[in-house]
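hey so u asked for the seq, here:
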Amino acid sequence: MRILKQYGKQRCFFLLLMLVWIAVFAAVLALYRLPVEAVGYAALLCAVVTVGAVVIDFALWYRRWRTLKRLAGSITLGLEGLPEGGGPIEEAYQELIEILYRDRQAQISAADAGRRDMIDYYTLWAHQIKTPIAAMGLLLQHDDTERGRELSAELFKIEQYVEMVLQYLRLGSGSTDYLICSCDLEEIVRQAARKYAVLFIRGKVQLELRPISARVLTDEKWLTFVVEQLLSNAVKYARGGKVTVFAEGETLVIADNGIGIAAEDLPRVFEKGYTGCNGRQEQRSTGIGLYLCRQICDRLGHSLAITSELGRGTTVRLSLARPELEVE
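ran it, structure tokens below
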């Protein structure tokens, strides 16, 4: 019914014109006092011809409408299949569509090239900056003073930010390599804990690592990055408190008794660039870490959930379980 209304709106002028001509034809025959049967028969013939023409026109219009609706989902890929214009006006519209399409493709190509150049540049920068960072780390190894230890801790943070940039670029490049295999979850956690030991020591944060006896199917490199980010957040906001890491089946739990997260911030902690109240107060949060963790977990088939209470701490649950596959 909606299609008929649309057709009627588009063809209303011509339909009314046909009815007017039928009425004029019948009126002329009546003025000449022709028999009623003759007038009625002529009017009926005109009506039949009109109805036939409308049916044929509607069938052609409907076929073109269906073709256009079908192309709506694939028109971004190409203009193939676009119906031929039914007149000069439609042909002019199609020329405009082709011009806009070519211009859009040119803009997309330019944007893709610019993005590739930017990714290549920042990837090169991130790799090059690692050399002076490593050199400064070697120099600070011989400075066993309080100032040297403080500088080493800050240098470690810089290194982690550079690593975050690399992971961000790799994640968005579309060519990320995944190696899914059975991994020892406890070894991954211990590796991340050893890496961030300096931050635990400098922040006077106690780490309780309970035994974890689980093997999970995942990508070790990317899961290690996720665990490192979660530990980094925990130690950052624990402030001399305690971080507890344990497993519940195939779910890794990282809990701290730090400052917690405000209830209004919880639904948005995984948004890119969102720092929340804590980030604005600390002035050192990027809002990228948890976003990357969620993106990586989604690609690996894991799930990430956070519960928190302001002033009482935060609990992160990283579910590594996979659905059982049915073998037919």
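The chain is about 60% helix and 10% strand. The first helix runs from residue 2 to 31.
lmk if thats what u needed
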